Amino acid sequence: KNQVEQSPQSLIILEGKNCTLQCNYTVSPFSNLRWYKQDTGRGPVSLTIMTFSENTKSNGRYTATLDADTKQSSLHITASQLSDSASYICVVRINTGGFKTIFGAGTRLFVKA
Amino acid sequence: NAGVMQNPRHLVRRRGQEARLRCSPMKGHSHVYWYRQLPEEGLKFMVYLQKENIIDESGMPKERFSAEFPKEGPSILRIQQVVRGDSAAYFCASSPSSGGDYEQYFGPGTRLTVT
Predict the structure, then answer these.
(1) How far is B50 from B110, CA to CA, in rounded Å?
(2) pLDDT tens digits for B38-82?
(3) Smallest Cβ distance to B43: which of A97, A99, A103?
(4) Is A69 exposed, middle or buried (0-12, 13-18, 19+ CB in 10 A)?
(5) CA nearest B44: which of B66, B19, B61?
(6) Per-residue pLDDT tens digits for A9-50
């Protein structure tokens, strides 16, 4: 069964600290993996996309890693800011020539001053 | 270039009424996707449409829900005879194509409350 599981479910950190969010997937065949940020009351916005051959990609203070062998990805946030408070969603695309994507339930990050 | 537009942003309906949710994709995008997000849960795929065609509706409930994307105008997600369990945020996304690494751009969502 195609699944995407994220951990932790929620996380509280102090402003300025780093954190790492995890994503494990059992999707096959794999096409790509995206991390989205969803602010409260808004639609998700893409942060990074990674294909099978990529194992790390950065977007400012966000760095995503991918281990296609273990089917794990992580999103590392450096020097967190209050505006990083949001849900972070891992989305894996199935390589069927179409569009099928599987969404994780997300990790809710709270950054406190 | 305006992003994906959804309206209304908030919709309140009484049980048994109909709800119509509209989505205007980004300019140049011909693929539209609808998702539902229940409180404290992840997004769940409902339906994927191209202009005038439903490509995949495997996530749509079999009854009361329908979607269309006419040649002209926005995509419409229609929920007939709403029930309290339909209360959720409904997100629309669009992309220029369905293949490859095309990103889905999401709208701000419509929050449906059924009283």
Answers:
(1) 21
(2) 887 888 889 999 988 998 888 899 899 999 999 889 999 999 999
(3) A103
(4) exposed
(5) B61
(6) 999 999 999 999 999 999 888 889 999 999 988 899 999 999
Q: Which of B42, B101, B108 sits opposite A105 (nearest CB)?
A: B42
Q: CA dist B79 to A42, B13, B66, B90, Å?
A: 22, 11, 7, 11
Token duo for residue A77: 């946030």
> What are φ and ψ of residue B85, in 5° steps?
-65, -10
> Nearest 10 degrees: CA dihedral of A65, B36, A38, B33?
70
DSSP letter for B104, please: P
**Residue A51 has which token pair?**
């294909």
